[in-house]
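Late entry, evening session. Most of the bench is empty. Finally got around to the prediction I had been postponing all week. Sequence below, unchanged from the version circulated by S.P.
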Amino acid sequence: MEDAEKEARLALADPSTRAVACAVLGTIRFQQKRLPESVHFLEQALRLEPHLLGAHLSLAEAYSLQGKSDLALKLYRRVLELDPSNPTARLALARYEAEKGNYRQSLTAKPTSGVLTRAPDGIYLLASDYLKVGDRPAAASLAKDWMALSAVSLEWSIKFGLLLAKAGVVTEAIDILEHAKQGGGSYELAFNLAGVYLLKNDLPRALENYDIALNQNPHSVPALKQAASIAERQGELERSLSYWMRAKKIQPDDPEVLLGFGRVCLRMDLLEDAEPALTKAANVRPTDPVYQYTLASAKVGKKQFEGARSILEKLVEKKPQDPQLEYALGSVFYLEGLLAQAQTHLEKSVRLQPQQLASYYYLALIARDQGNEADAIEKLEQLLQQYPEHAPSCEALGELLMSAHKYPEAEKNLEKAVRLNPKSVKSNYQLGLLLSRMGKKDEADKQLELAKSLRVEDEKTSRLQLRLLDPDQ
């Protein structure tokens, strides 16, 4: 740089080389980030020789950095007068049109696609404009051009992959990011690739990449949250809980972490761990219905029905047309033995959302508990026509049919209930009792002995059955 400046200063003394010398000095000052001096020399160069393309482009870039976009655009247009195919000037004008929202004009202003597809910024700008005008196939086709480039930075690949993914061009976005992994990974690459797989609903690959991201940055709470949620969705509750526990150690007061941790504990019947976490989360987010509902679920699991009902009544007051909340409140009233109140809320739930299961089931139980056995049988039979694999309904119907001395029908339903839920004490016991009444003593004894052996394990199951549904199910 010093040698170049010495030669340029010598050239200033010669009128025939003064313009080029000013251009060189202006370029040196630009590289040194001394913009005012750079502009001074470049302006002087163009006054001496108005046809210097390099000076026009350098001065335009300096003006852009100074925020003088109008002066920069004027220079780029002047370059195109001198050299209509100049890619730098065309790309600059295309960017300007894109920034103003004139995407079709931006496409028109660009140099030929062959020039643009040789550099990351050119492909990115071209894809951006195609997406803005709704031409997703044209944007998707640029993925091959991108992967043909050499030595593209991870930052550029992530940026381009996310551009495509956010526009719904998910497959090509995955191709871009997977290709970038071949040159060496990073936390940002793995985290964003996981997010794109999540957009595609490819949960195993998403979780795999969140694990890769966590290997790069074990303390990333966003990655731990996403990994925990995916593991939970896949039914891997122990794995999900391990992610939430790691996140909880890092951010013990984060309400989202507390909610996730508490929810998984709840699903695993770890009620003593679930309730304090959910209580803390609900206190931080007192107006969020999901937090309050999940806390109510924990209270139901611990048979704290009054506390659960208090929470649910407030939620119903705020959202009186929510069938999920009406069901939840009705089921809690039923568990408290308040059948009339339970019936009111459950009937409202099915009016709001006819296609559901749990409210119809509880309404059948209410009819049974009120002594309306024929009505209860009819309700359960109708329910099982739509949901033939619902074990609790088969069990309840079998018990009612046995009471009505309809033994063959009762046997059919109780056998089905046992097949659907082999560890249910009640189903096995009722079937044993029925077989005894039908005179099948040996079969009855075996069934009753099985029910007795299952009794201890069923104590845990009975607690699980008291839990409310998650609000998003």
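Two things to note before I forget:
The chain has 28 helices and no strands.
Residues 425 and 451 are 5 Å apart (CA to CA).
Will write this up properly tomorrow.
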